[in-house]
Amino acid sequence: MDTRQDVCSVHQLMTVKKLSRGKHKSGKLQHDETEADMLLIYALALLLVGLFAVNGIFAYQSKHIDPAFWTTVWYQTKLIPLFFAANLMIGYGVKFVHQVFGNLTFALTLSKGVEIIVCVVLGFFFMKEVPKWNTYAGLAMVIAGFWVTKMKG
Predict the structure, then answer these.
(1) pLDDT tens for each residue of 57-66
(2) Cα three-residue angle 106-95-117, rounded to 5 degrees
(3) What pTM was computed for the model?
(4) Which residues contact 33 (CB under 8 A, 6 or more apart)?
(5) Is residue 121 part of a domain?
(6) Most buried by CB count within 10 Å: which residue of 4, 56, 72, 136?
(7) Domain count of the chain?
(8) Which domain does 56 fall in, by range?
(9) What is the pLDDT of residues 126-151, one digit of tens each?
(10) What DSSP assignment string belongs to 8-41?
(11) Is residue 4 part of a domain?
């Protein structure tokens, strides 16, 4: 017997087991809502921490690091491990949102919305920029964009 057929058979068996676990008596697929909710909470937490780390590094750099080239290079080099960890968090956050909603466009749009909110918060803490009415109007447009993206069409 071919090894490739064995692998395909195992994959098919695993898929059938996953589907049969989630079936209701009527035969329709049933979602485990608590599992999806927890995955979404993990995703948002990972996105928040990762985006706060990356944007916080850049905000600190713009406020406190000399803009000379080699000073900036040294600052960025020291923070490579933090960038790597933040990148993993953001990547897994997007992946988990995609698993929950099944829509990559929505997952990426949601991550950008979270990033915009993080930038507003960091702008307030680092630059003392108080959000004005147009900031809130822009955030409302982003939220409306989420709604439009998630609409069935």
Answers:
(1) 999 999 999 9
(2) 55
(3) 0.72
(4) none
(5) yes
(6) 56
(7) 1
(8) 42-150
(9) 889 999 999 889 888 888 887 787 77
(10) HHHHHHHHHHHHHHTB-TTS-B---HHHHHHHHH
(11) no
